[in-house]
Amino acid sequence: MEKTVIDFSPFGKDAAAAHLFSDSYTYYGHYKTDTTIRLTQYNEDMIVNSTLPGDVVSFRNLIREDCVNWFHVTGLADSETITRLLTDFDCLVVDVKAVMTPCHAAKIDWYKDRLLIVMESCYFTKAHTITSEHICILAKGNVVISFKEKNDVKYDSILYAIRKNTMHIRSYKSGMLVAFLMNAIISVTIGSAMLVEEMLEEIDDILLNPNHNRLDVGKRIQECRHVNLIIQKNTIPLRTEFNRVMNSEMARKYEDLIPIFREVYNELDFIVLTSQNCKELLSSMRDLYMASNDLKTNGIMKRLTIVSTLFIPITFLVGLWGMNFAVMPEVNWKYGYIFAWVVLLVTGFATWRYMKRNKWF
Description:
Blueprint: E1 5-7, E2 24-26, E3 36-42, E4 47-52, E5 68-74, H1 79-88, H2 93-100, E6 107-111, E7 114-124, E8 130-140, E9 143-148, H3 156-164, H4 174-208, H5 217-246, H6 250-253, H7 258-321, H8 329-332, H9 336-357
Parallel strand pairs: 1-2, 5-9
Antiparallel strand pairs: 3-4, 3-5, 6-7, 7-8, 8-9
């Protein structure tokens, strides 16, 4: 029977098909990073790191029962190898779907002895643009499999922690590694949320300074709003899921790690509170920006009105002397031209003085 392959790209024509079930799945995300699998095995006495070839017959045969076995998968292009890796550890087809689907809704799912965490990590690139990365963590017994789309240094801190045995990570089972992985991912999002807050503080200073150039303020407010929406979209569902897990039977399996998992939850809570604070700031800044633009427009209209008012009596006099009457004494008077200039200047000054005295400007 021929298998059906569905395009799960959230950016293509078949975006609506991204949530349909199938026998196999193909990755069509933004990042075309080649798939590499690194295996880190450690316990209290030893650490072994290796890079696995894509043609491994059985990943299960590589497992050491006396170690925590961490398969670090970078790049989702090789869907066949990833599917084989997951099915080798008795994972369901829906697990493959969650791993291979970019922009999947954040969730924490478990059944029997398997835990699956699906999330999106959002961070700023070197070009100062926000980007999201699809990340999954699968834990089963002493095996942890992490998936991410890009090849970056996000997990280097975890490898360093394993080497240095930070917080006695090598004395714990796979639950501690899962906590470290989530902490590394969430820390990146914390940095993004704090950077948005700093950007909003800078915009606030600009709005409160009338002498500052505000040409790009509106654009910067919209950019911050876009970034904040991405952070909220990626964090709020994950916090809800994490809270559900913390209060479930699953937490009993990691009872000794509850304080650490609670700290991870607090970090998620911090991101959500920061993003909500940014949302309120954005709302008030947008109102302030619109009011500032209205005041600027009113100021321009006020100046134009003052200039127009100054010239109204002068225009009247010019129009009066411009009429072609046969008898107009000022026309034939020797000092008529000078007299007209004096009257125009005195009239303009008197009008200006009257408006100034009445505080029209």
